[in-house]
Design goal:
heterodimer; A: mainly beta; 5-stranded antiparallel sheet; 3-stranded antiparallel sheet; 8 strands; globular; B: alpha+beta; 5-stranded mixed sheet; 21% strand
Chain lengths: 81, 409
Amino acid sequence: MQRLSDSVRVAAIFAPGSGIRPVWFEWGRKKCCVTRLAYCWKDALGGATRLHFAVCDDSNLYELMYDTSDQNWTLMGVEEQ
Amino acid sequence: MAENRIILHIDMNAFFASVEQQSNPALQGKPVAVIGAAKRTIITTCSYEARAFGVRTGMNSWEARQKCPELIFVVGNNKKYSYTSKQIIAIMREYTPLVEVFSIDEAFLDVTGSLSLFGSAEEISRMIKERIRERFGLTCSVGIAPNKLLAKLASDMQKPDGLTVIAPDQVARVMERLPIQQLCGIGAKTQQQLAAFGIRTCGELARFPVDILRKKFGVTGERLHYMGLGVDDAPVVPEEEAEEVKSVGHSTTLDADLCQRSEILAVLLQLSEMVGRRARKYRVTGKTVTLTIRYPDFTTFSRQMSRAAPTNNSDEIYRDAVQLLDQLELAQPVRLLGVRITNLTHQAEQLPLFENERKKALVASAMDCLNNRFGDFSVTYGTLLGKECGAKVISPAWKPEGVRNVNAD
């Protein structure tokens, strides 16, 4: 996976009791629709809790990260399939 | 000890590799090997598809590539495995409070008292397996038996995704022809020593005169006799009741063999800071500092020294490690370095008497606060600036909770 650290705009569903589900995100000029949430996990960087999502669109695998301390989304990596 | 205990051993199948296959659907059904972040690491776990080619944990990447040219190497992600492991343990704890975490991907459960709530041990096992599969897409093998020794043996009998029961009335039959090396706790050396007595199966071990075993192995001789019989009284010990740890240590395989003193010192400082920080976090101090070195030919040795007073100060641990290094004449470049403190005192912190010592403790505490808030090594020693610190993959023997040894290999 190619590692990145790009700020991205993400549309996500925050529903009570069911966690967070990214629906689409904009990476540069490209809009990527999430077709599959493959895996998610949580970690912490210092005091900040970060939620990681391995998501697929029609062609690639992406790792999105949501930082709960500043509520920003970052694209952490991409793997072209 | 309750009679007729029912113990489960749950063993995640190819844990790290399976997590990676779930995280990346393109890897599913393919031979995958999880390796460390360093340039030269061994295979930590490989998928069952890779195992079919003869790839095994502990092989170096070159060796593995020879066995399976299509092998896909994936750099491990500690945090992902640790999170998954904690979640899986939380599922297990919903069925019994008696969960002993054996390693990041294995646990023992005493479900004797849970049967009236959840049904039979097989039903509990199926529920746990189903929930792990639903939540993470991962499979595990479960062994059900009257004790930990047999439960671990049972979980090994059907992999992946197995469920094996050894009922009390089957124990003698199972043990009779079982090769001794299949028992957890009998390593290559013990196996060799027992073979010298003509013992190759558990049945032979059980029948062998226990006096001779005692004479040869001491206290362990008696335990070996009972192991041959499939008897094990060891309780399932949950984390909160586990004995206090006896050491805090870190080791790392280096990206390239080092012979320059300055480079070795930089790694020692990094390891000492990791040891000191974890010791401070868990409020333990150590009176003995141990330095471990491995050469490229895998010769490994340790040197240790005892201090006048126990410490968890990174700087003091580092100075002792350097002193130990200076007493050595390195015969070869260094492949692996490790620093450890032992002879621990728990919960025994007191404010240092002298001002200089107090200042050091305050600096360490301030650094810890900053690193806790902004992430490991956000504030560190000048000599470590620009160096990548603590990013290696964890060993499967690591436990996700508590103060434990972490081998960064």
